[in-house]
Amino acid sequence: MPKDNSVPTSIFVRRESEARSYCRSFDTVFSSASGSEMTDEDGRTYIDFLAGCSSLNYGHNDPDMKQALVDHVMADGIAHGLDMYTTQKQAFLEAFEEKILKPRGMDHKVMMTGPTGTNAVEAAMKLARKVTGRTNIIAFTNGFHGMTMGALAATGNAGKRAGGGMALHGITRMPYEGSLGDVDTLAFIEAMLDNSSSGIDAPAAFLVEPVQGEGGLNAASAEWLQGIARLAKKHGALLIADDIQAGIGRTGTFFSFEEMDIEPDLIPLAKSLSGMGLPFAALLLKPELDIWKPAEHNGTFRGNTHAFVTARVALEKFWSDDSFQRKIAAKSVALTTALGQVADMVDGAQLKGRGMMQGVDVGSGELASDICARAFDKGLIIETSGAEDEVVKVLAPLTTPDAVFAKGLNILIDAARDALAAHTSIAAE
Amino acid sequence: MPKDNSVPTSIFVRRESEARSYCRSFDTVFSSASGSEMTDEDGRTYIDFLAGCSSLNYGHNDPDMKQALVDHVMADGIAHGLDMYTTQKQAFLEAFEEKILKPRGMDHKVMMTGPTGTNAVEAAMKLARKVTGRTNIIAFTNGFHGMTMGALAATGNAGKRAGGGMALHGITRMPYEGSLGDVDTLAFIEAMLDNSSSGIDAPAAFLVEPVQGEGGLNAASAEWLQGIARLAKKHGALLIADDIQAGIGRTGTFFSFEEMDIEPDLIPLAKSLSGMGLPFAALLLKPELDIWKPAEHNGTFRGNTHAFVTARVALEKFWSDDSFQRKIAAKSVALTTALGQVADMVDGAQLKGRGMMQGVDVGSGELASDICARAFDKGLIIETSGAEDEVVKVLAPLTTPDAVFAKGLNILIDAARDALAAHTSIAAE
Amino acid sequence: MPKDNSVPTSIFVRRESEARSYCRSFDTVFSSASGSEMTDEDGRTYIDFLAGCSSLNYGHNDPDMKQALVDHVMADGIAHGLDMYTTQKQAFLEAFEEKILKPRGMDHKVMMTGPTGTNAVEAAMKLARKVTGRTNIIAFTNGFHGMTMGALAATGNAGKRAGGGMALHGITRMPYEGSLGDVDTLAFIEAMLDNSSSGIDAPAAFLVEPVQGEGGLNAASAEWLQGIARLAKKHGALLIADDIQAGIGRTGTFFSFEEMDIEPDLIPLAKSLSGMGLPFAALLLKPELDIWKPAEHNGTFRGNTHAFVTARVALEKFWSDDSFQRKIAAKSVALTTALGQVADMVDGAQLKGRGMMQGVDVGSGELASDICARAFDKGLIIETSGAEDEVVKVLAPLTTPDAVFAKGLNILIDAARDALAAHTSIAAE
Amino acid sequence: MPKDNSVPTSIFVRRESEARSYCRSFDTVFSSASGSEMTDEDGRTYIDFLAGCSSLNYGHNDPDMKQALVDHVMADGIAHGLDMYTTQKQAFLEAFEEKILKPRGMDHKVMMTGPTGTNAVEAAMKLARKVTGRTNIIAFTNGFHGMTMGALAATGNAGKRAGGGMALHGITRMPYEGSLGDVDTLAFIEAMLDNSSSGIDAPAAFLVEPVQGEGGLNAASAEWLQGIARLAKKHGALLIADDIQAGIGRTGTFFSFEEMDIEPDLIPLAKSLSGMGLPFAALLLKPELDIWKPAEHNGTFRGNTHAFVTARVALEKFWSDDSFQRKIAAKSVALTTALGQVADMVDGAQLKGRGMMQGVDVGSGELASDICARAFDKGLIIETSGAEDEVVKVLAPLTTPDAVFAKGLNILIDAARDALAAHTSIAAE
């Protein structure tokens, strides 16, 4: 029952560019959202296992953030202040220092980049090149870092890259852990870098996602990330940990690499950083690398003041003690169990990811998309990822109530069962 | 009386990257803002002639936008919906079609890019290259288009470009109108393009700001822009009018080129598009160019739902008839008069820009900065622009009440008088 | 009477790539050549006003060079010695120092590059970038510097550039003197470089031909070249004078810029350097710029030993006193006179070039090609140049006997008259 | 006993660029050469196991080539004819068709590129990009393809690449067979290309040396090369076999890949192609790929006529039957035996290469260089190769008489023994 040409959506078809995408999978018009659920204009409610692609880790419209934002607006709090000093930025920085940096022994500074992940990644790449005087940045297979020309060069997906319309420069591609079966990717990378005639220019940085979100929920091991960190140091390169999708609690800790014993030099953050899904991004950088001149990387919307307000609330509410982390851990176990049921239905299926960033590789994009489509019909918003969209990906809000979470997982299991039955019956004909 | 190391600002010095900039000129901590004025934490009020670099054309916290946003939030309106269909996007698109496109006979589609100007520019550049199969984009001296690698290549400023840390590709630089004194820049460009041995690759697009904001308030004439449009057509290139700073009423009409008899193929918009200073950007594109595949250019925060709400209010409130335009026109006259008084004080000073985007080139960045610094001490927020920061630039909210506008202009005149007196007395020693 | 598919040439059609070119204009099979004349396999003799595109400035098979080469070969002189020390290289370097460098007060060192002009240009570009740490090289409209990717980037011709199959980087294009009618190109270039927001990166070098051969025999004035030299110094860039076609006596002096009061840092030489048309190229470089590491730019055929032998003879025979230069000067006058007769026949025709590197711009490539084709039928080998092949170009050996020279010029005048008559009669129909 | 500053060589030090290299290892002034031996100005004779880096596969000054060249010159045969048709080119093409192409069932056309290997490689790269409309060319670790910017991008050596002075584009680097120990490099390459999110752009070509000369005498297996050919076909890419150093009989057959059951689309040739060490290069291309427009890739010295003369003699003399190949095979066996003796002296030493392109990896550049230096003192010219110069490389003329060959090999064995003794005694102290 596609609605794309129906009356309510016609303005979208008529006026919104063909670049639009999620609206094609979830073909209804949403009007409100709260916690783990979205409601469309017909009053139908959907459980949200997409969460703005991990931008809504605390759910939709958290009541405390809502209230703080409304209070701010009603008091004529600043909506746009360029990168001037504001009381809201001050409060955010203090909270970030207290709740995040200090407890983790980190001394990073915060650069307010343009309020998109790709902008934070571009800032990181620019700074790495500026600091080292080198051009080459090592990025990984299946990596996704954004769509502006610098970040796009580091992104692996062929279709996205082709959209650039010109050759993309400055990146050497290396295999992510596990991307080549049994091949020891770390040994491969080391051998290529150690060989002075390999044709690989000395790197400015390694740009790596500790867990690849768009790339198929590939989770690197601590050993592998430590190896990358060691190679970076050995070759005079910086380590950029792109924690845009995996960070802010998604894997169970604020940063996805917290328990991995590495110290990234540069950490782009975005998505759930504002807490409430507002556009906001930042680059954490070690103080000794902060060689930026004033405005050397600027942008009109850097430092979204509304986002400072909600982000501060999020930090204070969720990261003042370890109770939130413990809840995530418990929920992650439930998730693994449920996904295991899905995996058991499909020959060769594999569990992917970790924490609340897990999924099932069902072997084909067609099957994965069918499962997601059937889930949507049953009231669950869920998407695929991976090079061939072969992974059914669960990115539920970390705050999802247990009952809602269980209900969503059951829908997923039902959808998978139906999809497989349909596929089997087709195959049997 | 620099406050940068004082107690209230120490968190900024300690934790915010050296890339921060405006806060260095306006060294206080702002806490609220309304209409044309900002207030700092000590309760001091400043008239704002910067307006978020033209992101606050309707002033701070317009009461109707505020109310609509608060209502939306309190009703659990969607804060983040990726690029799904929402009632808020629907309402925005309908308003944009009714209030902007139809009255101007335009048939452009709207692409929700990442919510930054640079992202809209990158999308335009990518699309122009994709449509034409060519790489080369012609950009202009003193142009400013953003800081991500694609847009940065098109930006003229040497310092900004150096921040990229690597060579920037895909751009041929041509002189903007008036940038070379009496030289007929249009004839020059035409001669270079017509010569098959000039070494200039066939262009995918011309990327031009009708009025250059950062570049020094250079306003191109209708004849010159028509000439560029003609050359684009002649050489099979698209015309991209970057209206990020000059658009949304700043020059007196919604688009800065409305009265110029040109039809740009692609129009990046940002800054004041949301009405309230929220991060929001879009690319207008002629329907026949909409060859994007789904998600070929995507981004987590494309289509900021809060911004849809406020942008719709702005369109309905200010663009339903021509009364707003008439008020801008009147205010622009007052602005020209006042700036004329400043210009009269300085040998060789020149008025720059048009509409509510005017300034005075006082011949040196040192003098211009001194004027701005003295204005700030007197309670006026105002900045410079130009390659050497030699232009004192007025970007007051278009809604500034006449009395406040007059007061601000008087402060500016006083500051200029003081600065010149000081300079003269130094010169006399 | 095209022969391209006839029996004698069929092996060429069958086995030689479509990239072949001159053989298409001069469709016969040549078997021998002496002095200013070439003879084909049918015994027909042609006067050669092409001279290997200025590679045979001393004519074909100069008897002294022939003898020296034959003596060398018969004595088992080295044919190929990589870049080892040989008595032949020693003798060449000594002659070059004595006959060329010392009398001109030059202290340049000699780098034996691969034996092609494009390789010498690439070496110059690499060294300029290495010395300055900058990427950007300023090249000029209508410049021709070779066909390998570095040099091709600096070449203006659209067709040649398209052959590269990918975007070419690292070059900013500036207008050559006179390329834009009355526009003061030097002032334009200076304004673009002085504007820190022009988007032109600081240059590593200016790469300029004192006379543009392929570009249409455009001869820069001393004032203009001095201006370029001054701008190079002002902006910390090197001056590369590509004297591959205009050097080795072609304009009347050994270097084409000798009387221009400039001191180029780097001077690529090739074409007539060997004296006898053998593959040979070199890069002259100021000693303080010689920061090459051993083999940092190498090549199997660098330092062609046969060419050392003939080049030494050429230097000793023609450059031991000023008699050769005086003869060139006299012949150049005769050339100007004859070309004046051609120019007088064509409305708007213009004399181009200087010395023995002159031609007539007849306004269209069609007419110029017709003149050359008719000349060939009458026994004269002559070619066109320019962006549209609109210039009939005379590059006769500098040693052409006066009678042969006069005969060749008369053929040219006759061919022009016939061509114009044909064009006029077509136009009259 | 370094002679670099002595009287005879002072002109070199004073006037030749620091880029000079082989003369540093072989510090004497050579004056003549015949067959397998070179003689310096003091009358000392050296056995030549370098052979112009495989440019003198038929030895120095082959008497038949000498005579043909002298006859040609004395008869005023053309020395330089651009790319016009000449009887000499005709005879060369006929011989090449008869002796090389037809017997091997090949239908390639011949493109006369500039007379350097790097130019032939650039032509191949340009054509591959032009034919496929793609930019990316896959090159291999330790590959060496030349020093102009296009070919340099494909070259692996870090020092050579750094000489370019700017970032090099358009190449993706893949591991050569055996470069990573036991890793299945073919499987790796296939996995990277098959993954649509690997970030590797679709390739225009694979550029591979069947035996890597400069890279350390790495000889790919037939299986591996067939695998590369299969991947090229699978991904719509051309196969470029760079046979510049390994071709023209060096490995035992005219092309190094003859017995490998692959059909390269493009084959750059140079070095020994002229037979006598004269500058000459060509690109063989399958007829259906010959989409070049006239002069789209040109060059003054393309089609060196002297080289046509000697190359024709070489083809007729050595490739009319299989006797030459049988002699090479026999000599190759002797070479393997002798190198085995060297390898036996050094712990962990490895035999490298195949045919008359063999060497010993002695584990360190220091040791290999010491062996070569001692060999030179004993009258043998021999060089190293490999990323760290760790391979002692034998590139003797294929025509070396057995006695001379044995004598040279004995010198090598002695030099190795002496070097090892010295190293051991140092180590023992």
Instruction: Quickly give the structural class of chain A.
Output: alpha/beta
Residue-averaged pLDDT of chain A: 95
Question: Which radius of gyration of chain A do the C-alpha atoms yield?
Answer: 22 Å
Number of domains of chain A: 2
Low-confidence stretches of chain A: 1-5
**Which topology of the largest domain in chain A does CATH recognise?**
Aspartate Aminotransferase, domain 2
Regarding quaternary structure, how should these chains be classified? homotetramer
Shape type of chain A: globular
Number of helices of chain A: 14
Q: Which CATH first-tier class of the largest domain in chain A would you pick?
A: Alpha Beta
Pfam family, one (chains A, B, C, D): Aminotran_3
Pathway (chains A, B, C, D): Amine and polyamine biosynthesis; ectoine biosynthesis; L-ectoine from L-aspartate 4-semialdehyde: step 1/3
GO molecular function, one term (chains A, B, C, D): diaminobutyrate-pyruvate transaminase activity
Cofactor (chains A, B, C, D): pyridoxal 5'-phosphate
